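This protein record is not my work; I was only asked to verify it. Where you disagree with what is written, explain briefly why. This is what I was given:
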Amino acid sequence: MALLVAGAFFMEILDATIIGPAIPRIAESFGVDPVDVNIAISAYLVTVAVLIPASGWMADRFGARRVFPAAIAVFTIASIGCAASTSLPMLVAMRVLQGVGGAMMVPVGRLAVLRSTDKTDLVRVIALLTWPALVAPVISPAVGGAIATFWSWRWIFIVNIPIGILGLVLSLKLIRGGPRSGNPPLDWLGLTALGGGIAAGLIGLEGIRVSGTDWLHVAIGVAAAMILLVVAAAHLVRARHPLVQLRVLRTQTLRITVTAGALYRLVITAVPFLLPLQFQLVFGWSPLSAGLVTAALFLGNIAIKPATTTLMRRFGIRRLLLANALVSAGWFVVLALVTPGTPVPVIVAILFVSGVLRSIGFTAYNSLAFADVDSAHLSHANTLNAAVQELAAGIGIAVAALLLGVMTPLVGVADGGLGAAYSWTYLALGALMILTAAETLRLPPDAGAAVTGTRPRAGG
């Protein structure tokens, strides 16, 4: 069962990022600007984020044995729809449907495995469930680039079909877990207001385009988003059984981790979206070449993993996060200086270091999130943190597209202007990264000491 869920996890993560190197080909197929295809990635990630809090309720209400196979079926059907898409709106709609399947598939499957695993096997099983998150991002740029180079971009989704069918058959045989009694009602108002607000915001921001901004479209979308999100926040604070429990944010370390960590993830996840576009549209590389070089980012992510715990214990989480944010901000300046004339080995080295920095940041924030949360609220804190991380990733891609859409008309596209637009976008992201350092300064000097065993140093 654990291997099946790990495979589903792998497929879900792979599908979230694999289309990056294929974006120019998808845009050409639909007759749109490549930057506009960002919504196909953002829509998937945001859908997953909004529905993650409902996944636990679904598992308890209907049972993992029903929900997990249904999620795989939805994901597979949506993959068929993605492959058959004839326009960008159709692709986005199918990606939303994929997100519905992905949001139910991984959390419910993980829950089913953990509930059926003996404590003596828990470490081994958790390790098995973790490896897809490490491996999938490394191979997805190369796989997506190869498919886009040698075949049609539609094969990115077609390959999910046989895997999904196999997963469906195995899940019907292996997954256990029936409905549980005494479940509270699903918070439909919270789900609708929160999901609608986020969707309205994304749709509004999509009005800012390289080809010309529809400001009425933007204003209506942003206004609707603000109203719905205010309604959602007011409801979530007062509801007896809210979709997400906001009261857990009273814990200082969790609150700052959620805000600073979300901003950090928003900035960092913009890079894997921008790089394949820059390499193809500015440097003139093939999708495969763009994907292979982008993979260096994720290789750095894996390479530093064994040392992250040692770094946190040696320097403390607060110091490490501050240093990481400042160095990362500086590294965006380095990214802005990369040009078509930069030697490929130098670009690979720059991206490898960038991957090292992002891995340190992700690990430190994840370690700090639950350091001071008591066991009674751990489930609510975990759900909130997971949803916010996924949401930040989706919004990060939308923000990257927004910045690029704003910068391109400002610098023009002639005489290397498109390359300058990417450079200014990286600089803007670097400025946002500095804000994470400012937020991290609010942490107490001994933040996370309970999980690292470190003591605060003089001067905090």
Observations:
- The chain has three domains: 1-176, 187-242, 248-460.
- The chain has a mean pLDDT of 81.
